[in-house]
Design a protein that fits this description.
295 residues, 2 domains
Length: 295
Amino acid sequence: MLEFIFWKEPGIKRLAVASTALALFFSMSGILAGSELLIVLSIPAFAVPFALTHFYGLYLSQRRKMEIGSSVPEALLLASSMAQGTSPENAADFIACNSGGPVSAEFAKARDEMLAGMPPEEAFSRMAERSGSGQMKRAAGLMISGIESGAEMSAAFREAAEDIAETNAISMERAAATAMQKYTVLLGGAILVPFILGKLASLTGNFSAAGLGVDGAKGAFGDIGLGMIGNASEAARRGLMEAAGIGNIIYIAEFAVIASVFAAMQEGIPRKAVVYAVALLPIGLGVYFAAKGGV
């Protein structure tokens, strides 16, 4: 798959070394300084470069599939204009020379394979699998059917071109309708929810012992009897705040995972949830600790 090309590049080793060194720097600095924020930042320092690389590979792969899918109707219309009895090699050459983008490159490669002695059916099948596009697979299937049957396929090519063009238009409308939902959930998991929880944790952490009526002090809550908290010791109050902090971190992690699964399912690529989660988890935790402050 195209999205894994970058993992085979020599530069990925240098990226791994640099990310590991940066992660160790943040983690050791956080341990020495007693800073939770620096320790948490070691996670995105290591994971984010790899996530961004994978995201870039996915982006290139999806863009290429979309370009192929949008160009397939034009290729089928070109095929429908050819005279009956045109050889598969000439048909592939005609489409390659009169279309553009990745579709032209795919048909040119199929033409070269056929000229090298590969059977036309196998060449078109390899082209379909190589492209990863459902529209291209359908076009290749029609061409293979025409080669095997020897029948006139012009009408079938035109009908398929119109059908694929209509399907592409519907897919674009659907993608536009769901994009706002997906990005809203991702924004919430990465920034909004962690920021709000961090600010709330900061505000509650700044309540003074006197304000809570600790050790008999009459504060804002001590006079009205806050119950267990109003009469708690400073150690108990700190324990309560730590428990609340752990709960916030668990909630942020759960929200990030749910948002990642939702976004991946919206795109129809379930395995992409892992990539989203790798990005959302460290970003969300970093925003939380930054908003919380004092770490």
